[in-house]
Please model this.
Amino acid sequence: MNDLSFLHEMETVSGEKISTCYQCYKCTVGCPVVTDMDVYPHRIIRHIILGDKEKVLRSKTIWTCLQCLTCSVRCPNNIDIAHVLDTLRKIAVKEHKEGERDTWRFDELFLESVGKHGRLHEIEAILKYKLEKKDLFSDTKMGMGMLMKGRMGILPHNIRDRERLQEIMKKVRK
Ligand code: SF4
Ligand code: SF4
Model:
């Protein structure tokens, strides 16, 4: 059943005037990962307007989005679609409706690593993720290739003023 209060909720939480969308498709046409999405960006906006909350919260699209902002700068109505998608992610997690829980978990581990070292320590984040998934060996060949080419380091490269960074991250998370 459609939830007609959903548009109001989304406009309030995201601060975006979603209702001004006139379905020009410019967002979808510019998106670099549209072929991996199950619901195209302009359709996500339409579903929000129609109150089809379940459809958008459970969509793969909100987890496929790279937050590159191409759609947002292309929108003739200044709707920050990337921000709308990010808002949907947060609501999906809050309501335990996320269709792609793994992506969310990897995001958390990514930020945890950046908070700890000041930049991503790839091996640590990937190993933690793989251990949680109980799937240590599926990408071994690719991982070894990256190590050999120096794309990933075994040891972390810590920045100097990590306390300051952690303070900033705490503020942002609030
Ligand atoms: S670009 Fe903007 S107005 Fe056009 S379909 Fe996308 S959200 Fe709607
Ligand atoms: S921000 Fe997301 S939806 Fe928008 S163009 Fe980039 S990947 Fe596509």
